[in-house]
TrEMBL record:
<keyword id="KW-0378">Hydrolase</keyword>
<protein>
    <submittedName>
        <fullName>Aminoacyl-tRNA hydrolase</fullName>
        <ecNumber>3.1.1.29</ecNumber>
    </submittedName>
</protein>
Amino acid sequence: MKIIAGLGNPGLKYENTRHNAGFMTMDKIARELGETWNQEKFSSQWIKTKVHGEDVVLLKPLTYMNESGIALRQCLDFYKAAPEDVLVLYDDVDLPVGKIRLRQKGSAGGHNGIKSVIQCIFTQEFDRIRIGVGKDPRIPMINWVLGKFRPAEKEDIEAATDLAAQAAIYAIDHPYSDTMNHFNKK
C-alpha cells in the first residue's frame, strides 16, 4: 500500500496559493490516474485506487495546513499502514519556484504542515517531495505562503507540479531511492 498526501488548505480562498502546491500536485496525480475527488474520509478528500496492482490512497487533508498530520494518522491507523508507506507533497519556500526536491527523511524545516505530520506519525522518516514556491524577504512569510503565484511564475509552478506528480506516480512501483535518483536530477 502507498499513501500519497498533498498538503494545503481547503476552500476557494486558498486555491492556487503557494501553500497549496501540494493540493495542486494531488489534483494532477488524480487526473493522471483517471480519478476524481468525490469522497471524504480521514478528515480529507480521498481516493482509493490501484496502480499496477498496488493499492494507493490519495489524500488532501481538510484539517488546514497546521493540522495535516491528524488526517494522515487517521488513514495510517485505518489501513494499519506504516510511515514507510507514506509520501508527502508540500510547498517549500527555501526552493525557487519551479524546482522540486525529493527526500526520504528530515526535520520540518519550519513548515507547520510537516511539523504536524511528524508529531502525528511519530517519526521524521517518511518520503517527501518538496515543491519550490520561493520567498520574498520584503513580504511577511504568512502573507507570502497564503498569496497567489505571480503571473511570471505560473509556467514554473505548472512545470514543478507536473514533475512532482510524475515523481509521485513513479514512486508507487519503484524504490524511493531510485525515484530520488531519477527526479532530483531534473
